[in-house]
Design goal:
alpha/beta, 3 helices, 14% strand
Length: 109
């Protein structure tokens, strides 16, 4: 079930980004982009890789990765995945590619 959910998310992102890219002017004005909301840490490694592929495929399209609920935990300093790898290193690599921005969701009052 979780793989189906991730597959549907990837398919939707492909359609959205392809549509944005088709309408994108030669010089990006900053008005177009993609915002991804991640609400679970269950498949975080796979989600980070998919966002990296999105940034690589469409370098002129800004991507905002918004972490909510349990997806915030991997962004905390020192957080590790099931294999002992630091999530922080993965996020740093993603941000170093450019085009992606990471921020926790703002708490509503």
């Amino acid at each position: 079930m979780k793989y189906l959910r991730l597959g549907l998310l990837c398919a939707a992102l492909t359609v959205i980004v392809t549509g944005l890219h088709a309408q994108e002017p030669k010089e990006t004005t900053g008005a177009l982009g993609v915002a991804l909301h991640l609400d679970t840490a269950t498949l975080m490694n796979r989600a980070i890789r998919q966002v990296g592929r999105l940034v690589d495929a469409h370098p002129n399209t800004p991507v905002k990765l918004i972490l909510i609920a349990s997806a915030v935990e991997p962004a905390l300093e020192g957080a590790t995945d099931n294999n002992g790898g630091l999530y922080g290193a993965q996020f740093e690599q993603l941000l170093a590619r450019g085009g992606a921005h990471l921020r926790p969701a703002k708490r509503r009052s």
